[in-house]
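Protocol step 4 of 6: structure prediction from sequence.
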Amino acid sequence: MKFQNLIPGINKVKQFLSDDKSDGIQKSYYVWDYNMNGVVAFDSLALFQFNVQRYNQQNVFFNKHIVVPPKTLQSMDVTKAKIHVFRNADPKQVLTEFIDANGLLNLDYCGYAFGYIPARCEITIIEVDF
């Protein structure tokens, strides 16, 4: 069995958050974009809600919140974080894995970076306060 090295993807998330914090961002929502192989930020509640509506139109619905524990907050250098977990209505659908043009597997590194391993039919948006 071949294991996926999660460190490069998690480091991309950490760097993106570090850059936002350096730019003075106080709160944002983060999701892993599989096509870009990187992080995308929704810098307002309105953009977050717009994305949630898009998910709903695709039969991907809110499932649960997870409050990120202090140790993870410290390692990610953020003040507060909440994981919004969305789940496809069809549990056989795959949302958390994507094979890119180079044949490499991309995972939901935003979820992994904050300590959540999504099921294959789930995707996360991470709400972060700096």
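Step 5 (inspection) to follow. Strands lie at 27-33, 38-42, 60-67, 80-88, 97-99, 105-107, 122-129.
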